[in-house]
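*** Fold description ***
***
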Amino acid sequence: MILPGKSILPLLVALATSLAPLPADATDLVVSSYTMSNGDAGTYNYRDFTYFPCPANSCNTNNALLTGGTGKLTDGVLPAASWYLDGVSSQWVGWETSQNGYAPTIRFFFSDTATISAVRLWVDNTPPGNGPVLLPASVAINGVTYAVQPDPSPGPRWLVFPGLTIVGNSVDVQLIQAPGYQTFLMLGQVAFEGSLRADRQPGCAGADRRRGSGTGDSPPSGSSSEDLGQTDCAQPLPTLRTPFASK
């Protein structure tokens, strides 16, 4: 079970290990880019080596700054096997926590203002005997910390944080490990549920007409701010799903 670190947000969040498809009412947002410190190379390569653009070979350099692009964490590929079974060129991004202040932070950007209702993190867990690679002790989402209960059961699983009401064009996700643990944190995928601002959603009736070319952020000459409202394009937010049940 995952519980919020602040009582003002009494969310109930659970773990899931299933690779089953998401329910039909789950709407994943497209991440336009994310910024973070690159992963490390241990026995295998846990860097975000598919990240693009990759200036100065930063995507192949331990702990190098990655910015302005995307890579493994948002490519839609879930590593089904734990880190030590995933091969030399691992789909996992891993950080040696003692080298990263025990708390790597990733900032995700969206193409427009987004309303985030849930965050999902695909993480690995191999208690002592393999690594060890452990679940994060807690996860901070935009500065709000949620405690993660240790789990002796090995294997990849989702950490799901529903019931959020985050509005903005970026979200910070921080994986926090208790100081003193010399271990890796493994992250395979990050997904966000919610909606973009309705008047910028693809296929929204009237959006391109009101914006002229449909590519600029400024209204056409002679248009008022009301012309860019949600009169023709409003889309209801997806209904929140029931949190995943613990295994």
In short: Residues 1-26, 203-247 have pLDDT under 50 and may be disordered. Residues 207-211 form the longest helix (5 residues). The chain is about 0% helix and 30% strand.
